[in-house]
Design a protein that fits this description.
Blueprint: E1 5-9, H1 13-24, E2 28-31, H2 38-47, E3 50-51, H3 55-61, E4 64-67, H4 74-83, E5 89-92, H5 98-110, E6 114-115, H6 119-128, H7 135-146, H8 158-165
Parallel strand pairs: 1-2, 1-4, 2-3, 4-5, 5-6
């Protein structure tokens, strides 16, 4: 089976941690450096991400795109991805309202993108990762596995999180 490529938009503070965790699970994690800040470059380097240089190249090379950006930018990021006619699975992991999430889904679906809100796909992904195949059950399991860090004075390292989640 070919190695899955996950495009990450954008690997700054939160995105780089997400990228490192995804990469620890086996997929190649890509990012696009064109027009990005020093913070994005530093985050991508820390996380060991592969630079696709441009968004167009990232879209061509990715089966999944994961959007981790400031909520105010989520619609623009979705529009940029849609403009490249991305046909894979798109996961918007941003803190946006349900109305905005539906708007993003519409933008991407119109462009032919499969929005990962499609529960059958996320169910299969969770099952393949050894997590419960129900979204709510999976979230509860993740929270339960990370509960020991809830009141920690220092955040856990990526390696500690990966170990707690059973990805290492």
């Amino acid at each position: 089976m070919a190695r899955v490529a996950v495009g990450l938009l954008h690997p700054e503070e939160m995105g780089s941690v997400v990228g490192e965790i995804v990469r620890a699970g086996g997929p190649q994690v890509l990012w696009a450096s064109e027009g990005r800040s020093r913070a994005s470059r530093a985050g991508a380097e820390r996380a060991g991400l592969v630079d696709s240089r441009t968004l167009a190249a990232l879209v061509r090379q990715s089966q999944v795109i994961l959007s981790v950006c400031p909520p105010h930018a989520a619609m623009d990021v979705a529009r940029q991805v849609a403009a490249h006619r991305f046909a894979g699975a798109y996961l918007d992991a941003n803190a946006v309202s349900p109305k905005t999430a539906r708007a993003i889904a519409g933008i991407l679906e119109e462009a032919g993108t499969r929005f990962v809100g499609e529960m059958e796909e996320s169910t299969a992904t969770f099952a393949e990762a050894g997590l419960p195949d129900g979204f709510s059950r999976a979230a509860a399991t993740v929270y339960r596995r990370l509960a020991g860090y809830k009141d920690s004075k220092e955040p856990p390292s990526v390696a500690e999180i990966a170990a707690a989640l059973g990805t290492q």
